[in-house]
TrEMBL record:
<feature type="transmembrane region" description="Helical">
    <location>
        <begin position="316"/>
        <end position="339"/>
    </location>
</feature>
<feature type="transmembrane region" description="Helical">
    <location>
        <begin position="182"/>
        <end position="201"/>
    </location>
</feature>
<keyword id="KW-1133">Transmembrane helix</keyword>
<dbReference type="InterPro" id="IPR038900">
    <property type="entry name" value="TMC"/>
</dbReference>
<protein>
    <submittedName>
        <fullName>TMC5 protein</fullName>
    </submittedName>
</protein>
<keyword id="KW-0812">Transmembrane</keyword>
<feature type="transmembrane region" description="Helical">
    <location>
        <begin position="276"/>
        <end position="296"/>
    </location>
</feature>
<dbReference type="GO" id="GO:0008381">
    <property type="term" value="F:mechanosensitive monoatomic ion channel activity"/>
</dbReference>
<keyword id="KW-0472">Membrane</keyword>
<feature type="transmembrane region" description="Helical">
    <location>
        <begin position="351"/>
        <end position="375"/>
    </location>
</feature>
<dbReference type="GO" id="GO:0005886">
    <property type="term" value="C:plasma membrane"/>
</dbReference>
């Protein structure tokens, strides 16, 4: 029969830990309601342990109270870690709109961001902080352009890579020392080892989760019958879940029905011409952008070689080339996205893949031109 909330909490409190966890998981309630029930059960257990202090020894009572408190602390900590997940809602929206294949790319970007944050914490703790301690007073003036150029005042700070030393840091004579060479080696080694363990654990978890794929046996019916979370009661979450499942099934059906979609010869010719024209336009735009960056860099170099400017004007002139390159990398992808809409791909995933490929070609081309400019033109002018 149905229990009142008080009876339910008392029954759960009388169960063992494993039985209680399974019983709460099977409840057709929202996650918020389950957390409330779990916290009330833990409070009830704490009250019972206090009432039984006469029957139990002091040591046993303290041990049980500590175990309950530790369990409650662990549950609270896991909830906060769940809230700290980056872009959790955004990734769900991407998966619902574009499918799992596009979602995997953004999950990869999320992994890269996580690794970079982790790398920053390690490097800042063991490399940057000792450099702060050993740094000498900075006598250069700050003009504000350093925020964009990275030169000037920042050349004598930890923000400038050439500022770092590889010597042993000893702030007090005959005091403790800090070997920067060993710090570099152990910091990088520790970072790679921890990243390897994280990747290994993630791969093992993914393998154990996807070892038995029900879709291989039941087809798309498993997604409709076996993957729905009936604890979802929020209207927005329900619609997002429905859209996600719909997009996944559409992806699978597109792969299955790809051979069924037959176009006439004229339609195929038109589609091929549109694709070729779009690629020609995208590659032509990339070539034009690279040519503009190259000629701008050459003219900018001539201004530096001729001289006649003070230090502030020289730093301001240094910003012209990166600003132009940044603007090209910002606005040309909108043109590529418009070309993708013009091509009318069968799935949103194909549109995303082609747009990403064109953006990669653009960025690599501009970087290649800049590398040629720095390694050949600038190096030759400095040698002269």
């Amino acid at each position: 029969g149905f229990y009142t909330e008080e009876e339910l909490i008392r029954n759960l409190a009388s169960m063992s830990t494993g039985e209680r966890i399974k019983a709460i998981q099977k409840m057709p309630e929202t996650m918020k309601k389950k957390r409330e029930i779990r916290n009330k059960v833990l409070q009830e257990i704490t009250k019972k342990s206090r009432h039984r202090c006469v029957q139990l020894s002091c040591c046993t009572d303290c041990r049980q109270g500590a175990a309950v408190s530790f369990r409650r602390f662990g549950n609270t900590l896991s909830e906060y870690f769940h809230l700290l997940q980056f872009f959790h809602k955004t990734l769900k929206i991407i998966g619902a709109k574009f499918g799992t294949s596009v979602l995997s790319y953004f999950i990869f970007l999320k992994w890269l961001l996580t690794f970079n944050i982790f790398s920053f914490l390690i490097n800042f703790s063991f490399i940057t902080i000792p450099q702060f301690i050993a740094a000498e007073p900075n006598d250069l003036s700050f003009t504000g352009l350093e925020l964009f150029t990275g030169a000037g005042y920042f050349q004598q700070t930890v923000l400038y890579y050439g500022f770092y030393t590889n010597a042993t840091i000893r702030k007090i004579e005959h005091g403790p020392s800090y070997n920067m060479q060993l710090a570099y080696i152990f910091t990088v080694g520790l970072y790679f080892v921890i990243c390897f363990l994280i990747l290994l654990f993630s791969m093992a978890k993914s393998f154990s989760k996807n070892f038995i794929n029900p879709q291989a046996y039941a087809g798309n019916a498993s997604k409709l019958l076996c993957t729905w979370d009936f604890n979802i009661t929020n209207e927005k979450a329900v619609k997002l879940k429905q859209k996600n499942l719909s997009t996944q099934i559409k992806e699978d059906l597109t792969e299955v029905n790809r051979e069924v979609l037959n176009f006439s010869v004229k339609e195929r010719a038109v589609r091929v011409m549109i694709h070729l024209g779009s690629w020609a336009a995208s590659l032509g735009t990339a070539v034009a952008a690279c040519a503009g960056v190259y000629f701008l860099s050459i003219n900018n170099l001539k201004l530096f070689v001729n001289g006649g400017k003070n230090d502030l004007e020289s730093q301001a002139a240094m910003l012209v080339l990166p600003i132009v390159a940044s603007l090209l990398n910002t606005f040309i992808p909108f043109f590529y996205s418009w070309l993708g809409h013009l091509e009318k791909f069968q799935t949103p995933g194909h549109h995303i893949y082609v747009t990403i490929a064109r953006n990669i070609v653009l960025k690599i081309s501009i970087i290649g031109i800049l590398c040629y400019y720095w390694l050949n033109v600038v190096a030759a002018s400095e040698s002269q």
